[in-house]
Amino acid sequence: MPEMADILRRYGTQYLKRHGSRVLPSHRRAIRAILACRTAAMGGELYRCPDCDDFVYRYHSCRDRACPKCHSQQTKKWLEARRKELIDAPYFHIVFTVPHQLRRLIRSNQRILYAVLIRAAFQALQVLAWDPKFLGGRIGALCVLHTWTRTLGHHPHVHILVPGVGLDRDGRACTARQSFLVPTRALSKIFAAKFIAMARKELPKNTHIPRTPKKWNCFIKPAIHGGERVLQYLARYVFRHAITNSRILSIDHGRIRFRYQNSETHKWATMDLDANEFLRRFLQHVLPSRFHKVRYFGLWHPRCRDDLHRLITLFGQGRTTCQTPTEEKPPPSLKCPSCGGVRLHFIGKLPRSPQPLSYPSNPRPPPALIEAVA
């Protein structure tokens, strides 16, 4: 099956020549990382199979957050750490979106307005959560920025996981109703006003920011199966990028065909795009360097973990249903691709090499390389 790296090897040079200096440095870094991932450019280990006397290469991952091959272990570790912070209480999954008229503005000012989007979403939620008619206290929130649609379109929005418990101004625990946290219509209006106010403050010279908020949508859904189910859903976006290699079907004749799930019918369909348009859609979701797409606010903030642990002590730890790492199956052992043998002997580490950026075609390395890593 074709991979994202294959698309970049075949059409990446053409894309860079076409767009030239307009390609952002973060996009160029992502391209280099994906091309080098699990190749000789990243270095690795060299093994020898005693059964057939062939050599087996095992190359390192690039760990770039735009790479479709990496981050499976990071996702498991992150999910396990967040599960330990769950409270035995009702949870709510909230999604904040912006009008499509503002998407171009946000895309042109990603570092600033993505951060504004996340902060405005939480602050609007906290304003209503302080109201004693709803919760009456300070909440904790896990916020995850999501920028793509299933067809790789640009659609910035924020997912927030919120427990239905908090601490009032006197430090006492307060609880929300089982299936209601805050009113959606009021939340949308406050979120719109806060986003526009913050955006105008951060970009005072920009004339494209509207003075009056348009119709913005907020979606609140009680987590019927608890916070863990929402965590598993959010974990897909924490370390993964817009598309996985398994969704890419073909990359021939300058066209990229991939599959996606229709959000309305929930049925799988296929889309065919020009290679240049596909790369443009893919790269537009590469975040600015060192931008944090996952943020913790309120009781979930690292400086407030003592208050979070107080709530865990009062209400108990949330029940989990997925397997713990100790119950997971061990990773499959490295096998020889020639004979399937598993009794591989470690020879040494392979140094990083700028060339080649693909797996070696000859399974037996030159003697100089064996001597260098032995």
Mean pLDDT across all residues, rounded? 87
Strand arrangement within the widest β-sheet reads 8-3-5-4-12
- Helices and strands: which structural class? alpha+beta
Distance between the termini: 34 Å
Q: How many H/I helices?
A: 10
- Helical fraction: 25-40%
What's the domain count? 2
- List the uncertain runs: 323-331, 356-366
* Bulk shape: globular
Largest sheet: 5 strands, antiparallel
- H and E order: HHEEHEHHEEEEHEHEEEHEHEH
Beta-strand percentage?
A: 15-25%
Please give the number of β-strands.
13
| Radius of gyration, whole Å | 24 Å
Description of the molecule:
- The protein is of the alpha+beta class.
- The protein is 33% helix and 20% strand.
- It folds into 2 domains: 4-65 and 334-373, no CATH class; 72-242 and 285-327, no CATH class.
- The protein has helices at 4-19, 25-36, 72-83, 103-108, 110-129, 184-202, 227-238, 275-283, 305-315, 367-373, and strands spanning 44-48, 55-59, 91-97, 140-148, 154-163, 165-167, 173-175, 218-223, 248-250, 255-261, 268-274, 294-298, 345-350.
- The strands form 4 sheets. The chain has a 5-stranded antiparallel sheet with strand order 8-3-5-4-12, sandwiched between helices. Strands 2-1-13 form a 3-stranded antiparallel sheet, with helices on one face. A 3-stranded antiparallel sheet has the order 9-10-11.
- A hairpin with a 6-residue loop joins β1 and β2.
